[in-house]
Amino acid sequence: MTESTVSVVARMRTLLRLGPLNILRVAVYRTLLKWGVYRHLLPIKPALVGPFFDWSASTVNPSLPENVDALAWSRDAERVMRGELPVFSSRWVECGFPPNWHRSVISRVELSEPQQHWTRIPDFALTGGDVKGYWEPARFDGLVILALAWISTRRPDFQLAIEHWFASWCKHNPANAGVQWKCGQETALRLLQVILVAELLRRWGAVQPTRSLRKLVAEHCARIAPTMLYGVGQDNNHGTSEAGALFAGGAFLVKHGDTGEVLRGKTWRRAGRHWLENRLQRLVMPDGSFAQHSVNYHRLMLDTCSFAETTRKIYAEIAFSQDFYQRCAAAATWLADMTDPIVGDAPNLGANDGARIFVLHRLPYRDYRPSVQWASILFLQRRRYAKDPQDEVLSWLGLDASTLPLSENTAKPRLWPDGGYAKLVSAHAWLILRLPRYRFRPSQSDALHLDLWVRETNVACDGGSFSYNLSEQWLGYFGGTKSHNTVQFDGRDQMPRISRFLFAEWLDCAEIVVDSSGNSVMASYRDCWGATHRRAVYLLPEGGCTVVDSVAGFRDRAVLRWRLAPLSSDWVANAGAWNNGTIKIRVSASTPISRLEMVTGWQSKYYGIKSALSVLEVEVQSAATLTTEITW
Length: 632
Known about the structure:
Blueprint: H1 3-18, H2 20-34, H3 37-41, E1 53-54, H4 70-81, E2 84-87, E3 91-94, H5 132-135, H6 141-153, H7 156-172, H8 184-205, E4 208-209, H9 211-224, H10 228-233, H11 237-256, H12 259-283, H13 295-314, H14 322-338, H15 369-379, H16 392-397, E5 414-416, E6 421-425, E7 429-434, E8 450-454, E9 457-460, H17 472-479, E10 487-489, E11 497-499, E12 502-503, E13 511-514, E14 520-526, E15 532-540, E16 544-552, E17 558-564, E18 572-574, E19 577-579, E20 584-589, E21 595-606, E22 609-620, E23 624-631
Antiparallel strand pairs: 1-4, 2-3, 5-6, 6-7, 7-8, 8-9, 10-17, 11-12, 13-14, 14-15, 15-16, 16-23, 17-22, 18-19, 19-20, 20-23, 21-22
Helix pairs in contact: 4-6, 6-7, 6-8, 8-9, 8-11, 9-11, 9-12, 11-12, 11-13, 12-14, 13-14, 13-15, 14-15
């Protein structure tokens, strides 16, 4: 069979796995887009003018929740007013105040036609590069900071800054005009943040939304609803984000709106409820794994569900379905088990674009505990952690968890057979093995990747995703097999790439065996070229890990990689082993090793930022069994 024939067959099989209904949804969306239907349904509207809140009933003396550092929120708000914003949850960047909504925070290029209809804007051909550079300020993290600072201090300049933010936004981004309205999910994330701010101001400051703010909420709902078919067709967090925003936006209008707004709000609320329950039932598997195979997108999905449930309680709406709560509980448990309870970090599995909303705490981006705690009290009726800084989220939202029991945090081995993950645990270490089981489209070629944690340090790590707007070289590196702790055959990925976000010939486990004691796991696969990889992992109680890789069926070479973070210049080779004073790693093989060397690789823990790390590469040129011993 020729390579071109394989490509055609692979594409057809992939389309079938994506699902005919999803393909139809996306095709209908693109047809309506091309024919200009959305320009007719969603015309550009006049810019809204403020005020957006009624501050008349607010008191001078703030009523504050527990665990709040008012001075710290004030300092951050002052930075926002000086023109800085936290971008991609990792760094502060000069954006102006109010932000220049049409200038990229990445390339610093300003759009030349900022108010054309969103349907006329390309996905990946903007003059300023990555579209996420334009979207990031419009996720409204800066607005949340201003609101928390005003609640904490009642300073008039923060109040004026909030109104100025909204006035600037509406003036420069009238409904359906420009890049900020292009994506249904971006519109949804912004709407969720607006509702969060409105409810925080109402709860803690007796501030009420005006008709202008209600109109802004309605404009966002009206933009999201007609293109939900595209979001649903993606089988990812586009659908959950947009559904959650429609539910929350609709419920907000039912609570605060006039007669006409209430009627439309009921329609959007009903649609949002339907699709949120539908998406959870489909995309969150029974074992709690999420369809996107990404720890950070799992958090985004779970936070969306937590906010939907919180707003449901605030507005006294009827409960969601029992299946919804069961899936949310399973998803909360999954994220808790992936999170180190001491430092809050988690494996950098899958795509990671810096997405994080509802930041009502002062913990870093890579600390997942606030999300775990929030979801646990809502969906498991238990506290995952003892009282700590992550509880600031609960305090701001008025959620009392003081009477809830504390979960047993004893680390245990886990198998997630639906999503494709296994966890082994010892006294001072734990690891995750990524099983080649892709029920939904994989974003990375990461079969049998091993993530090893020793005393809260990610010793052997995933490369992350760096950016979505990359050259083929970097796209292939971060999304490919080369940036994972696994075996690469013949210099190619484990699955052929069809496009930027799509692989073909999805792998599946030929076998999975988990030892009854929870000390070992074994899995294997055969790829579409006939190469086979079997990996057995043993986590030793006395402080070590042994990995046995059996490889065969490849043409020229197989390369085993161990990505050892953080970068250290102290790795010393001695008698076939590498040692940096803390970790010792030794690799042996049943056939001659043609190459064994420490090289420089890359990892990306935050969107748009990459850093170097040491990578041990072991190459063989014939079928072999490679044994890696890692001790600490």
